[in-house]
Queue: 2 jobs
Job 1
Amino acid sequence: MNQTLTRRCRALCPLAALLAAVLLNAQRADSAPRPKKLLVVTVTKGWRHDSIPAAERMIKRLADESGAFTVDYARTDDELKAKTTAAALKGYGGVFFAQTSGDIPLADPAAFLGWIKSGRAFVGMHSATDTFPSFPPYIEMIGGQFESHPPEHITVRCIVEDTAHPATNSLGKTFSAHDEIYVLKHFVRARVHTLVSLDKHPATGAPGYFPLAWNRMYGRGRVFYTALGHRSDVIESDWYGRHILGGVRWALGLARGNARPQRP
Ligand SMILES: [Zn+2]
Protein backbone atom coordinates (compact mmCIF):
# COMPACT_ATOMS: atom_id res chain seq x y z
CA MET A 1 0.00 0.00 0.00
CA ASN A 2 2.77 2.38 0.99
CA GLN A 3 4.68 1.49 -2.12
CA THR A 4 1.61 2.29 -4.28
CA LEU A 5 1.26 5.69 -2.62
CA THR A 6 4.93 6.46 -3.16
CA ARG A 7 4.64 5.50 -6.84
CA ARG A 8 1.54 7.72 -7.25
CA CYS A 9 3.26 10.60 -5.54
CA ARG A 10 6.31 10.22 -7.77
CA ALA A 11 4.02 10.36 -10.80
CA LEU A 12 1.94 13.29 -9.52
CA CYS A 13 4.62 15.50 -7.97
CA PRO A 14 6.19 16.62 -11.27
CA LEU A 15 2.68 17.42 -12.54
CA ALA A 16 1.95 19.47 -9.41
CA ALA A 17 5.29 21.24 -9.76
CA LEU A 18 4.53 22.02 -13.42
CA LEU A 19 1.07 23.34 -12.52
CA ALA A 20 2.53 25.53 -9.79
CA ALA A 21 5.13 26.90 -12.23
CA VAL A 22 2.45 27.69 -14.81
CA LEU A 23 0.31 29.48 -12.21
CA LEU A 24 3.29 31.45 -10.93
CA ASN A 25 4.24 32.53 -14.46
CA ALA A 26 0.65 33.58 -15.16
CA GLN A 27 0.73 35.67 -11.99
CA ARG A 28 4.06 37.18 -13.02
CA ALA A 29 2.68 38.06 -16.47
CA ASP A 30 -0.28 39.83 -14.81
CA SER A 31 1.88 41.88 -12.48
CA ALA A 32 4.70 42.42 -14.98
CA PRO A 33 5.46 46.12 -15.41
CA ARG A 34 3.98 47.58 -18.59
CA PRO A 35 6.48 48.62 -21.24
CA LYS A 36 7.57 52.23 -20.88
CA LYS A 37 8.03 52.66 -24.60
CA LEU A 38 6.18 55.65 -26.05
CA LEU A 39 5.03 55.71 -29.65
CA VAL A 40 5.74 59.25 -30.83
CA VAL A 41 3.29 60.14 -33.61
CA THR A 42 4.07 63.07 -35.92
CA VAL A 43 1.73 62.27 -38.83
CA THR A 44 -0.26 65.28 -40.08
CA LYS A 45 -3.29 65.59 -42.31
CA GLY A 46 -3.94 69.27 -41.62
CA TRP A 47 -1.44 71.96 -40.67
CA ARG A 48 2.14 70.68 -40.47
CA HIS A 49 4.32 72.49 -37.93
CA ASP A 50 7.92 73.10 -38.95
CA SER A 51 8.81 72.54 -35.28
CA ILE A 52 8.14 68.78 -35.54
CA PRO A 53 11.86 67.92 -35.78
CA ALA A 54 12.49 70.01 -32.63
CA ALA A 55 9.65 68.15 -30.87
CA GLU A 56 11.13 64.77 -31.82
CA ARG A 57 14.60 65.83 -30.62
CA MET A 58 13.16 67.13 -27.34
CA ILE A 59 11.27 63.90 -26.59
CA LYS A 60 14.31 61.75 -27.42
CA ARG A 61 16.53 63.93 -25.23
CA LEU A 62 14.08 63.65 -22.30
CA ALA A 63 13.94 59.87 -22.75
CA ASP A 64 17.73 59.52 -22.86
CA GLU A 65 18.47 61.94 -20.03
CA SER A 66 15.80 60.63 -17.65
CA GLY A 67 16.02 56.93 -18.52
CA ALA A 68 12.32 56.87 -17.61
CA PHE A 69 11.05 55.75 -21.01
CA THR A 70 12.11 54.84 -24.53
CA VAL A 71 10.71 56.06 -27.84
CA ASP A 72 9.63 54.71 -31.17
CA TYR A 73 8.23 56.78 -34.02
CA ALA A 74 5.28 56.79 -36.40
CA ARG A 75 6.13 59.42 -39.02
CA THR A 76 4.26 58.11 -42.06
CA ASP A 77 0.76 56.79 -42.75
CA ASP A 78 2.10 53.26 -43.23
CA GLU A 79 4.11 53.35 -39.99
CA LEU A 80 1.10 54.67 -38.08
CA LYS A 81 -1.22 51.96 -39.45
CA ALA A 82 1.29 49.20 -38.74
CA LYS A 83 2.21 50.39 -35.23
CA THR A 84 -1.38 50.93 -33.98
CA THR A 85 -2.79 47.46 -34.63
CA ALA A 86 -3.97 45.66 -31.49
CA ALA A 87 -0.91 43.39 -31.61
CA ALA A 88 1.59 46.22 -32.16
CA LEU A 89 0.12 48.42 -29.39
CA LYS A 90 0.92 45.70 -26.84
CA GLY A 91 4.54 46.78 -27.12
CA TYR A 92 3.90 50.35 -25.96
CA GLY A 93 3.12 51.90 -22.61
CA GLY A 94 1.53 54.86 -24.34
CA VAL A 95 1.52 57.30 -27.22
CA PHE A 96 2.73 60.86 -27.66
CA PHE A 97 0.85 62.89 -30.27
CA ALA A 98 3.45 65.54 -31.11
CA GLN A 99 2.01 68.21 -33.44
CA THR A 100 -0.38 65.77 -35.12
CA SER A 101 -3.24 67.28 -37.14
CA GLY A 102 -6.35 66.23 -39.02
CA ASP A 103 -7.73 62.72 -39.42
CA ILE A 104 -4.60 60.62 -39.18
CA PRO A 105 -4.77 56.95 -40.24
CA LEU A 106 -4.77 54.94 -37.01
CA ALA A 107 -5.36 51.23 -37.64
CA ASP A 108 -8.65 51.44 -35.69
CA PRO A 109 -9.46 54.75 -33.93
CA ALA A 110 -12.17 53.28 -31.65
CA ALA A 111 -9.94 50.35 -30.60
CA PHE A 112 -7.10 52.83 -30.04
CA LEU A 113 -9.22 54.76 -27.53
CA GLY A 114 -10.16 51.47 -25.83
CA TRP A 115 -6.47 50.64 -25.56
CA ILE A 116 -5.79 53.97 -23.77
CA LYS A 117 -8.77 53.34 -21.48
CA SER A 118 -7.32 49.96 -20.52
CA GLY A 119 -4.50 51.73 -18.67
CA ARG A 120 -2.11 53.26 -21.18
CA ALA A 121 -0.66 56.76 -21.44
CA PHE A 122 -1.76 59.45 -23.87
CA VAL A 123 0.35 62.58 -24.11
CA GLY A 124 -0.61 65.35 -26.52
CA MET A 125 1.16 68.55 -27.34
CA HIS A 126 -0.14 71.66 -29.09
CA SER A 127 -2.01 70.59 -32.26
CA ALA A 128 -2.91 67.19 -30.76
CA THR A 129 -6.22 69.02 -30.12
CA ASP A 130 -6.36 69.93 -33.83
CA THR A 131 -6.46 66.19 -34.61
CA PHE A 132 -9.56 64.08 -35.41
CA PRO A 133 -11.78 67.19 -35.61
CA SER A 134 -14.75 65.09 -36.71
CA PHE A 135 -14.28 62.16 -34.31
CA PRO A 136 -15.95 63.33 -31.06
CA PRO A 137 -14.76 60.34 -28.95
CA TYR A 138 -11.16 61.47 -29.53
CA ILE A 139 -12.01 65.06 -28.53
CA GLU A 140 -13.74 63.69 -25.42
CA MET A 141 -10.62 61.64 -24.58
CA ILE A 142 -8.11 64.48 -24.98
CA GLY A 143 -10.44 66.95 -23.27
CA GLY A 144 -10.81 69.82 -25.75
CA GLN A 145 -10.52 70.93 -29.35
CA PHE A 146 -8.52 73.68 -31.03
CA GLU A 147 -10.71 76.63 -31.98
CA SER A 148 -8.45 79.57 -32.81
CA HIS A 149 -5.26 81.44 -31.98
CA PRO A 150 -4.26 85.08 -32.24
CA PRO A 151 -2.59 85.81 -35.61
CA GLU A 152 0.67 86.80 -33.91
CA HIS A 153 2.74 84.96 -31.35
CA ILE A 154 2.22 86.70 -28.03
CA THR A 155 3.60 86.65 -24.51
CA VAL A 156 1.09 85.47 -21.93
CA ARG A 157 1.13 85.15 -18.16
CA CYS A 158 0.28 81.52 -17.49
CA ILE A 159 -1.34 80.59 -14.19
CA VAL A 160 -0.25 77.28 -12.66
CA GLU A 161 -3.31 75.70 -11.07
CA ASP A 162 -1.46 72.78 -9.47
CA THR A 163 2.05 73.64 -8.29
CA ALA A 164 2.57 70.08 -6.98
CA HIS A 165 1.86 68.12 -10.14
CA PRO A 166 5.01 66.71 -11.81
CA ALA A 167 4.14 68.53 -15.07
CA THR A 168 4.00 71.94 -13.39
CA ASN A 169 5.93 71.71 -10.11
CA SER A 170 8.96 73.42 -11.68
CA LEU A 171 7.06 76.37 -13.14
CA GLY A 172 6.16 78.44 -10.08
CA LYS A 173 2.72 79.94 -9.47
CA THR A 174 2.84 81.86 -12.74
CA PHE A 175 5.22 81.90 -15.66
CA SER A 176 5.40 83.73 -18.95
CA ALA A 177 5.40 82.05 -22.33
CA HIS A 178 5.87 83.54 -25.79
CA ASP A 179 4.13 81.23 -28.23
CA GLU A 180 1.16 80.70 -30.50
CA ILE A 181 -1.61 80.59 -27.89
CA TYR A 182 -4.61 78.37 -28.47
CA VAL A 183 -8.21 79.03 -27.57
CA LEU A 184 -10.03 75.71 -27.17
CA LYS A 185 -13.62 74.59 -27.50
CA HIS A 186 -15.48 71.52 -26.22
CA PHE A 187 -13.47 71.79 -23.02
CA VAL A 188 -15.38 70.54 -19.97
CA ARG A 189 -13.81 71.93 -16.83
CA ALA A 190 -15.45 69.34 -14.58
CA ARG A 191 -13.89 66.51 -16.59
CA VAL A 192 -10.20 67.38 -16.23
CA HIS A 193 -7.63 68.49 -13.69
CA THR A 194 -6.45 71.83 -15.05
CA LEU A 195 -2.72 72.46 -14.74
CA VAL A 196 -2.21 75.75 -16.60
CA SER A 197 -4.72 78.42 -17.57
CA LEU A 198 -5.05 82.05 -18.60
CA ASP A 199 -7.42 84.55 -17.04
CA LYS A 200 -7.66 86.66 -20.22
CA HIS A 201 -8.62 85.81 -23.78
CA PRO A 202 -5.29 85.72 -25.65
CA ALA A 203 -6.64 87.74 -28.60
CA THR A 204 -9.12 90.18 -27.04
CA GLY A 205 -7.83 90.41 -23.47
CA ALA A 206 -11.37 89.89 -22.17
CA PRO A 207 -11.38 88.32 -18.69
CA GLY A 208 -12.32 84.65 -18.58
CA TYR A 209 -11.06 81.13 -18.09
CA PHE A 210 -8.82 79.74 -20.83
CA PRO A 211 -7.17 76.36 -20.13
CA LEU A 212 -3.76 75.59 -21.65
CA ALA A 213 -2.72 72.30 -20.02
CA TRP A 214 -4.46 69.59 -18.07
CA ASN A 215 -4.45 65.93 -17.11
CA ARG A 216 -7.25 63.45 -16.55
CA MET A 217 -8.05 59.81 -16.01
CA TYR A 218 -9.66 58.14 -19.02
CA GLY A 219 -10.92 54.84 -17.69
CA ARG A 220 -7.70 53.40 -16.27
CA GLY A 221 -5.69 55.38 -18.83
CA ARG A 222 -3.89 58.65 -18.10
CA VAL A 223 -4.12 61.66 -20.39
CA PHE A 224 -1.84 64.70 -20.30
CA TYR A 225 -2.19 67.57 -22.74
CA THR A 226 -0.47 70.91 -23.16
CA ALA A 227 -1.51 73.47 -25.76
CA LEU A 228 1.89 75.14 -25.49
CA GLY A 229 4.71 74.17 -27.84
CA HIS A 230 4.19 75.72 -31.28
CA ARG A 231 7.57 77.40 -31.54
CA SER A 232 10.87 75.53 -31.75
CA ASP A 233 12.46 77.87 -29.19
CA VAL A 234 9.68 77.05 -26.71
CA ILE A 235 10.04 73.32 -27.39
CA GLU A 236 13.81 73.53 -26.88
CA SER A 237 13.59 75.54 -23.64
CA ASP A 238 14.39 73.97 -20.28
CA TRP A 239 11.05 74.88 -18.69
CA TYR A 240 9.11 73.26 -21.51
CA GLY A 241 11.21 70.09 -21.29
CA ARG A 242 10.48 69.84 -17.56
CA HIS A 243 6.76 70.45 -18.24
CA ILE A 244 6.67 67.63 -20.80
CA LEU A 245 8.84 65.19 -18.83
CA GLY A 246 6.62 65.62 -15.76
CA GLY A 247 3.52 65.04 -17.86
CA VAL A 248 5.01 61.94 -19.48
CA ARG A 249 6.14 60.52 -16.15
CA TRP A 250 2.66 61.06 -14.68
CA ALA A 251 0.93 59.56 -17.73
CA LEU A 252 3.17 56.49 -17.61
CA GLY A 253 2.39 56.03 -13.91
CA LEU A 254 5.98 56.83 -12.89
CA ALA A 255 5.10 59.91 -10.83
CA ARG A 256 2.18 60.76 -8.59
CA GLY A 257 -0.05 63.69 -9.39
CA ASN A 258 -3.60 64.79 -8.77
CA ALA A 259 -6.07 64.04 -11.57
CA ARG A 260 -9.28 65.10 -9.83
CA PRO A 261 -11.13 67.97 -11.48
CA GLN A 262 -10.90 71.17 -9.40
CA ARG A 263 -14.01 72.94 -8.24
CA PRO A 264 -14.59 75.94 -10.47
ZN1 LIG B 1 0.80 75.91 -33.90
Note: The helical segments are 2-31, 52-66, 77-83, 86-89, 109-117, 136-142, 232-235, 238-251.
Job 2
Amino acid sequence: MDIAIIGAGNVGRALATSFTQAGHTVRITAQHPEHAQAVAAETGARWIESNAAAAETDIVVLAVPFASAESVAAEIRGAVAGKPVIDVSNRMAYGAEGPTIDNGPSNAERLAEWLPEASVVKAFNTLFASNQVDPNVDGIQLDGFVAADDPTAKATVLELVDSIGFRAIDAGPLARAQQLEQLAFLNIVLNATNGWSWQSGWRLAGAPTAVASAA
Ligand SMILES: NC(=O)c1ccc[n+]([C@@H]2O[C@H](COP(=O)([O-])OP(=O)(O)OC[C@H]3O[C@@H](n4cnc5c(N)ncnc54)[C@H](OP(=O)(O)O)[C@@H]3O)[C@@H](O)[C@H]2O)c1
Protein backbone atom coordinates (compact mmCIF):
# COMPACT_ATOMS: atom_id res chain seq x y z
CA MET A 1 0.00 0.00 0.00
CA ASP A 2 1.04 3.59 -0.60
CA ILE A 3 0.64 5.38 2.74
CA ALA A 4 1.15 8.96 3.98
CA ILE A 5 1.89 9.52 7.65
CA ILE A 6 1.35 13.09 8.81
CA GLY A 7 3.38 13.49 11.99
CA ALA A 8 6.78 12.05 12.80
CA GLY A 9 6.64 11.76 16.59
CA ASN A 10 6.22 8.60 18.66
CA VAL A 11 3.40 7.21 16.52
CA GLY A 12 4.66 8.48 13.16
CA ARG A 13 8.05 6.86 13.76
CA ALA A 14 6.58 3.58 15.03
CA LEU A 15 4.09 3.17 12.18
CA ALA A 16 6.65 4.22 9.56
CA THR A 17 8.88 1.44 10.92
CA SER A 18 6.13 -1.20 10.89
CA PHE A 19 4.72 -0.21 7.52
CA THR A 20 8.07 -0.12 5.70
CA GLN A 21 9.10 -3.42 7.30
CA ALA A 22 5.86 -4.93 5.97
CA GLY A 23 6.74 -3.73 2.45
CA HIS A 24 4.45 -0.70 2.26
CA THR A 25 5.58 2.58 0.68
CA VAL A 26 5.52 5.46 3.17
CA ARG A 27 5.66 9.24 2.84
CA ILE A 28 6.11 11.23 6.04
CA THR A 29 5.74 14.87 7.12
CA ALA A 30 6.17 16.84 10.35
CA GLN A 31 5.93 20.42 11.49
CA HIS A 32 9.73 20.63 11.66
CA PRO A 33 11.12 19.14 8.44
CA GLU A 34 14.19 17.75 10.21
CA HIS A 35 12.01 15.52 12.42
CA ALA A 36 10.35 13.87 9.42
CA GLN A 37 13.68 13.68 7.58
CA ALA A 38 15.22 11.81 10.53
CA VAL A 39 12.37 9.28 10.61
CA ALA A 40 12.58 8.90 6.84
CA ALA A 41 16.31 8.19 7.08
CA GLU A 42 15.73 5.62 9.84
CA THR A 43 12.89 3.76 8.19
CA GLY A 44 13.19 4.09 4.43
CA ALA A 45 10.12 6.33 4.26
CA ARG A 46 10.19 9.38 1.97
CA TRP A 47 10.09 12.86 3.50
CA ILE A 48 7.57 15.18 1.89
CA GLU A 49 7.52 18.88 2.68
CA SER A 50 3.79 19.62 2.58
CA ASN A 51 0.95 17.72 4.20
CA ALA A 52 -1.26 18.24 1.14
CA ALA A 53 1.36 16.82 -1.23
CA ALA A 54 2.01 13.87 1.09
CA ALA A 55 -1.71 13.08 1.18
CA GLU A 56 -1.69 12.20 -2.55
CA THR A 57 -1.51 8.51 -1.54
CA ASP A 58 -3.96 5.60 -1.16
CA ILE A 59 -4.23 5.95 2.63
CA VAL A 60 -3.43 8.82 5.00
CA VAL A 61 -2.58 8.41 8.69
CA LEU A 62 -3.08 11.47 10.86
CA ALA A 63 -0.45 11.01 13.59
CA VAL A 64 -0.56 14.51 15.07
CA PRO A 65 -1.84 15.74 18.44
CA PHE A 66 -5.59 16.18 18.09
CA ALA A 67 -5.18 19.91 18.76
CA SER A 68 -3.53 20.12 15.31
CA ALA A 69 -6.05 17.90 13.52
CA GLU A 70 -8.49 20.57 12.37
CA SER A 71 -5.80 22.69 10.71
CA VAL A 72 -4.19 19.63 9.09
CA ALA A 73 -7.63 18.52 7.88
CA ALA A 74 -8.09 21.88 6.16
CA GLU A 75 -4.73 21.41 4.38
CA ILE A 76 -5.40 17.87 3.13
CA ARG A 77 -9.16 18.05 2.52
CA GLY A 78 -8.91 18.18 -1.28
CA ALA A 79 -6.28 15.43 -1.50
CA VAL A 80 -8.11 12.89 0.66
CA ALA A 81 -11.57 12.93 -0.94
CA GLY A 82 -12.77 9.33 -1.31
CA LYS A 83 -9.81 7.86 0.63
CA PRO A 84 -9.33 6.26 4.03
CA VAL A 85 -7.92 8.71 6.61
CA ILE A 86 -6.83 6.93 9.77
CA ASP A 87 -7.34 8.77 13.04
CA VAL A 88 -4.97 7.42 15.70
CA SER A 89 -5.64 10.15 18.26
CA ASN A 90 -6.53 9.85 21.92
CA ARG A 91 -7.97 12.36 24.35
CA MET A 92 -7.59 13.09 28.00
CA ALA A 93 -7.12 16.03 30.28
CA TYR A 94 -5.85 16.46 33.84
CA GLY A 95 -8.52 17.65 36.25
CA ALA A 96 -8.32 18.23 40.01
CA GLU A 97 -8.82 14.49 40.59
CA GLY A 98 -6.26 13.42 37.96
CA PRO A 99 -6.81 12.29 34.36
CA THR A 100 -10.31 12.80 32.95
CA ILE A 101 -12.05 12.18 29.61
CA ASP A 102 -15.23 13.80 28.33
CA ASN A 103 -18.22 11.81 27.12
CA GLY A 104 -18.86 13.87 24.01
CA PRO A 105 -18.35 12.82 20.39
CA SER A 106 -15.11 10.98 19.68
CA ASN A 107 -12.14 12.67 18.05
CA ALA A 108 -12.77 10.46 15.02
CA GLU A 109 -16.36 11.68 14.61
CA ARG A 110 -15.16 15.29 14.87
CA LEU A 111 -12.47 14.61 12.26
CA ALA A 112 -15.14 13.15 9.96
CA GLU A 113 -16.98 16.47 10.17
CA TRP A 114 -13.82 18.30 9.10
CA LEU A 115 -13.19 15.81 6.25
CA PRO A 116 -16.70 15.11 4.91
CA GLU A 117 -15.48 13.71 1.59
CA ALA A 118 -12.95 11.30 3.11
CA SER A 119 -13.62 7.96 4.84
CA VAL A 120 -12.37 8.45 8.38
CA VAL A 121 -11.26 5.23 10.08
CA LYS A 122 -10.30 4.85 13.74
CA ALA A 123 -7.32 2.55 14.19
CA PHE A 124 -4.06 2.14 16.15
CA ASN A 125 -5.20 4.42 19.00
CA THR A 126 -5.48 1.55 21.51
CA LEU A 127 -1.84 0.57 20.85
CA PHE A 128 1.02 2.44 22.49
CA ALA A 129 3.76 3.51 20.06
CA SER A 130 6.02 0.95 21.78
CA ASN A 131 3.61 -1.79 20.68
CA GLN A 132 3.02 -0.39 17.21
CA VAL A 133 6.50 -1.58 16.29
CA ASP A 134 6.02 -5.00 17.92
CA PRO A 135 2.53 -6.53 18.12
CA ASN A 136 3.50 -9.21 20.66
CA VAL A 137 3.57 -8.56 24.41
CA ASP A 138 4.50 -11.37 26.82
CA GLY A 139 4.16 -13.72 23.84
CA ILE A 140 0.58 -12.56 23.16
CA GLN A 141 -0.45 -10.99 19.86
CA LEU A 142 -2.30 -7.73 20.53
CA ASP A 143 -5.57 -6.70 18.91
CA GLY A 144 -5.78 -3.86 16.41
CA PHE A 145 -9.31 -2.47 16.59
CA VAL A 146 -10.75 -0.72 13.52
CA ALA A 147 -13.97 1.35 13.44
CA ALA A 148 -15.38 3.01 10.33
CA ASP A 149 -18.62 3.62 8.45
CA ASP A 150 -17.31 2.98 4.93
CA PRO A 151 -16.91 -0.80 4.40
CA THR A 152 -14.28 -0.47 1.67
CA ALA A 153 -12.09 1.88 3.71
CA LYS A 154 -12.53 -0.35 6.75
CA ALA A 155 -11.53 -3.47 4.83
CA THR A 156 -8.39 -1.72 3.57
CA VAL A 157 -7.38 -0.67 7.08
CA LEU A 158 -8.14 -4.11 8.55
CA GLU A 159 -5.76 -5.51 5.93
CA LEU A 160 -3.13 -2.89 6.86
CA VAL A 161 -3.46 -3.71 10.57
CA ASP A 162 -3.13 -7.43 9.79
CA SER A 163 -0.12 -6.80 7.56
CA ILE A 164 1.93 -5.46 10.47
CA GLY A 165 1.15 -8.40 12.74
CA PHE A 166 -1.88 -7.49 14.84
CA ARG A 167 -5.10 -9.48 15.09
CA ALA A 168 -7.35 -7.10 13.17
CA ILE A 169 -10.76 -6.67 14.80
CA ASP A 170 -13.70 -4.96 13.13
CA ALA A 171 -15.08 -2.86 15.98
CA GLY A 172 -18.09 -1.60 14.03
CA PRO A 173 -19.12 1.86 12.81
CA LEU A 174 -17.15 5.05 13.39
CA ALA A 175 -19.35 5.77 16.43
CA ARG A 176 -17.48 2.90 18.18
CA ALA A 177 -14.44 5.21 18.18
CA GLN A 178 -15.81 6.63 21.40
CA GLN A 179 -15.32 3.24 23.11
CA LEU A 180 -11.90 2.78 21.45
CA GLU A 181 -10.80 6.16 22.80
CA GLN A 182 -12.07 5.16 26.27
CA LEU A 183 -10.22 1.81 25.99
CA ALA A 184 -6.99 3.64 25.23
CA PHE A 185 -7.68 6.12 28.02
CA LEU A 186 -7.90 3.33 30.61
CA ASN A 187 -4.56 1.89 29.50
CA ILE A 188 -2.96 5.36 29.57
CA VAL A 189 -4.31 6.10 33.06
CA LEU A 190 -3.16 2.73 34.42
CA ASN A 191 0.36 3.37 33.13
CA ALA A 192 0.46 7.00 34.24
CA THR A 193 -0.88 6.39 37.75
CA ASN A 194 0.94 3.12 38.50
CA GLY A 195 4.32 3.98 36.97
CA TRP A 196 4.06 1.11 34.49
CA SER A 197 6.43 1.01 31.51
CA TRP A 198 3.95 1.79 28.69
CA GLN A 199 4.12 -1.74 27.27
CA SER A 200 0.62 -2.98 28.15
CA GLY A 201 -1.93 -3.55 25.39
CA TRP A 202 -5.34 -5.02 24.70
CA ARG A 203 -6.17 -8.59 23.61
CA LEU A 204 -9.80 -9.73 23.80
CA ALA A 205 -9.63 -13.31 25.07
CA GLY A 206 -12.12 -15.75 23.59
CA ALA A 207 -12.70 -13.80 20.38
CA PRO A 208 -12.23 -15.71 17.09
CA THR A 209 -8.63 -15.81 15.87
CA ALA A 210 -9.55 -14.71 12.33
CA VAL A 211 -10.48 -11.13 11.47
CA ALA A 212 -13.76 -10.53 13.30
CA SER A 213 -16.66 -8.73 11.68
CA ALA A 214 -19.00 -6.55 13.73
CA ALA A 215 -22.75 -6.66 13.13
N1 LIG B 1 2.36 8.06 21.90
C1 LIG B 1 1.58 6.98 21.87
O1 LIG B 1 1.95 5.91 22.39
C2 LIG B 1 0.24 7.05 21.19
C3 LIG B 1 -0.46 5.85 20.99
C4 LIG B 1 -1.67 5.87 20.32
C5 LIG B 1 -2.17 7.07 19.86
N2 LIG B 1 -1.48 8.23 20.07
C6 LIG B 1 -2.03 9.48 19.48
O2 LIG B 1 -1.24 9.72 18.34
C7 LIG B 1 -1.13 11.14 18.09
C8 LIG B 1 0.34 11.50 18.01
O3 LIG B 1 0.97 11.16 19.24
P1 LIG B 1 2.56 11.16 19.37
O4 LIG B 1 2.86 10.58 20.70
O5 LIG B 1 3.17 10.58 18.16
O6 LIG B 1 2.83 12.73 19.41
P2 LIG B 1 4.23 13.48 19.22
O7 LIG B 1 5.35 12.56 19.56
O8 LIG B 1 4.09 14.77 19.94
O9 LIG B 1 4.30 13.75 17.65
C9 LIG B 1 3.37 14.59 17.02
C10 LIG B 1 3.87 14.82 15.61
O10 LIG B 1 2.89 15.63 14.94
C11 LIG B 1 3.62 16.58 14.16
N3 LIG B 1 2.75 17.70 13.84
C12 LIG B 1 2.09 18.53 14.67
N4 LIG B 1 1.41 19.45 13.97
C13 LIG B 1 1.64 19.19 12.65
C14 LIG B 1 1.23 19.77 11.44
N5 LIG B 1 0.44 20.85 11.41
N6 LIG B 1 1.67 19.22 10.29
C15 LIG B 1 2.49 18.13 10.27
N7 LIG B 1 2.91 17.54 11.41
C16 LIG B 1 2.50 18.06 12.58
C17 LIG B 1 4.78 16.96 15.03
O11 LIG B 1 5.77 17.59 14.23
P3 LIG B 1 7.22 17.99 14.87
O12 LIG B 1 7.93 16.69 15.10
O13 LIG B 1 7.85 18.79 13.81
O14 LIG B 1 6.91 18.74 16.14
C18 LIG B 1 5.20 15.59 15.53
O15 LIG B 1 6.06 14.95 14.63
C19 LIG B 1 -1.86 11.81 19.24
O16 LIG B 1 -3.15 12.16 18.80
C20 LIG B 1 -1.95 10.73 20.32
O17 LIG B 1 -3.11 10.87 21.11
C21 LIG B 1 -0.29 8.25 20.73
Note: The longest helix spans residues 177-194.
